[in-house]
Amino acid sequence: MQAPQDCKDMTQLRAAIDTLDAEIVAALARRMAYIDRAIVLKPGAGLPARIDARVEEVVAKVRGRAMAEGLDPALAESLWRRLIDWSITREEAVLGKGLLPKRRAE
C-alpha cells in the first residue's frame, strides 16, 4: 500500500483507504473472536463480563499507543470505549452481569 504522500490522485488515495478499512475490519473480527473466547473462559475463572479495572487498563494502553502513533488519544479512547462496551454487552448476553462462581476442576 502506498504511503499517503505517495498517492498521486484521489483514486489512489481512496484505494489505499479502502485497503486500510478492510484491514481494520479484519482486525476487529479477530478481536471479536478473542471476546468470544473470553465468554468461554470467564465462567471457569469466576470472572464477570465487566471488570472495570481491566477496562481502564485497556483504555490507558490504547491512549498511549495512539499518542505514540500520532493519533488523537481522545478519538482512540472514544472508539475503544464504544468497542469495549459492545464487547461487554456481548459477554453479558451469555454470562449475565454478576460475578460467576468458579467451577471446580473435575
Describe the structure.
The chain has helices spanning 10-45, 52-69, 73-95. Helix 1 (10-45) crosses helix 3 (73-95) and helix 2 (52-69) packs antiparallel against helix 3. The protein is built from three helices and no strands. The model has no long low-confidence stretch (mean pLDDT 92).
- Average of the residue pLDDT scores: 92
Structural class of the secondary structure composition?
A: mainly alpha
What is the highest CATH level, the class? Answer: Mainly Alpha
- How much of the sequence is in beta strands? under 5%
What would CATH call the architecture?
Up-down Bundle
Helix content: over 70%
Q: Order of helices and strands, N to C? A: HHH
What is the CATH third-level topology name? Chorismate Mutase Domain, subunit A
Strand element count = 0
Q: Between the first and last Cα atoms, what is the distance in angstroms?
A: 51 Å
Topology of this protein?
Elements: H1 10-45, H2 52-69, H3 73-95
Helix pairs in contact: 1-3, 2-3
EC number: 5.4.99.5
InterPro entries: Chorismate_II_sf, Chorismate_mutase-related, CM_dom_sf, CM_II_prokaryot, Isochorismate_pyruvate-lyase
Keywords: Isomerase
Short structural summary:
Its EC number is 5.4.99.5. The chain is about 75% helix and about 0% strand.
Task: Write out key terms for the chains shown.
single chain, 106 residues, mainly alpha, Chorismate Mutase Domain, subunit A
